[in-house]
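Q: Given only this backbone (113 positions), what sequence would you predict?
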């Protein structure tokens, strides 16, 4: 089951929303419902739901989803491309901060909506 997975083991994805054409292919292919189209119809990651199978990276027709380890620095710096799906526990918050530091992500996630 998804619950109980160790959130510290995943690198996740970065989405360059400026390039996204709102096709929804990534949302449809994600096995963990970790992607959505936001209020501007741009793909957005739900941080704690992503478990690194990278089907979305392969499915995107304009190649604007990247493994975090391969993401362009300018894409990482843009706002709005990821949010939390729920309030995180203190331990999960630490994992989030470690992930941001490890991958050079400076923007914070949007709060749960
Ligand atoms: S890497 Fe996999 S789990 Fe993560 S958002 Fe993409 S398709 Fe979903
Ligand atoms: S597959 Fe790519 S272009 Fe289509 S919605 Fe997802 S990120 Fe945007």
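A: Predicted residues:
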């Amino acid at each position: 089951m998804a619950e109980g997975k160790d959130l510290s083991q995943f690198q996740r994805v970065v989405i360059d929303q400026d390039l996204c054409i709102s096709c929804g292919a990534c949302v449809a292919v994600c096995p963990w419902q970790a992607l959505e189209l936001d209020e501007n119809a741009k793909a957005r990651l739900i941080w704690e739901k992503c478990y690194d199978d990278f089907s979305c990276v392969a499915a995107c027709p304009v190649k604007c989803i990247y493994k975090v380890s391969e993401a362009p620095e300018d894409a990482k710096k843009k706002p709005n491309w990821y949010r939390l799906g729920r309030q995180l526990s203190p331990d999960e918050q630490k994992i989030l901060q470690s992930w941001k530091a490890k991958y050079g992500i400076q923007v914070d996630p949007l709060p749960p909506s």
